[in-house]
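Dissemination and training. As part of the outreach component of the grant, students in the summer workshop were shown how a complex can be specified as a set of sequence lines and then modelled as a single object. The example used during the hands-on session is reproduced here so that future cohorts can follow it. Participants entered these lines:
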Amino acid sequence: MIAWLDGAIPYLKALHIASLVIWCAGLFALPLMLARHDPAIAQADYSRVRLACHYGYTWVVTPAAMVAIAAGILLIFMREVFVPWMFAKLVFVALLVGFHAWLGSTIVAVAETEGEHQTPAPLLPLLLLLVLVLAILVLVLAKPELDKIPLPHWLMEPRGRQLPFDAPPRL
Ligand code: HEM
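and obtained this result:
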């Protein structure tokens, strides 16, 4: 790796960690904020919670997720971590992204669509989120040797075949 690129790794890692802290904090906060969408509260409070959810999701949590993911993808190539624990981590990150998308669709359904909507109770989503975040942290911090897990050999070596679809035209 080029020396100055190596020097950028600590800064990129700091950016990765700072943005994922904001991302994950938002994922924990939003289900609790959604639970405050109670028609029984005063109109002004309801509007405040609704706007906080909307702007928090679109202007803080989603951009932080994008920065965390972009920095993480760059780190994969700069640190050359093409190893099983990283692939396992990416599976859990994919589930985290799914959770993020579920939150977005729930915010739209509960707070931005006409009609009566039931806000989801926060306990179960928060437990699920805790499991996902802990799994990611264990994988990335312990970096366990997962090489012993048997994988089918077709996943471990190049297949040397054509792609199963037409190659996109070159521009
Ligand atoms: C697509 C999303 C992500 C990608 C591609 C990614 C990739 C990476 C890479 C390549 C590293 C450097 C590993 C090393 O230097 O050994 C790293 C570090 C780290 N990641 Fe991620 N990551 C992602 C999301 C997350 C999430 C969601 C969390 C936590 C919930 C997380 C937590 C961490 C931590 C704590 C480190 C520092 C580990 C260390 O330096 O020992 N990452 N990530």
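The chain has five helices and no strands. Students were then asked to discuss how this feature might be tested experimentally.
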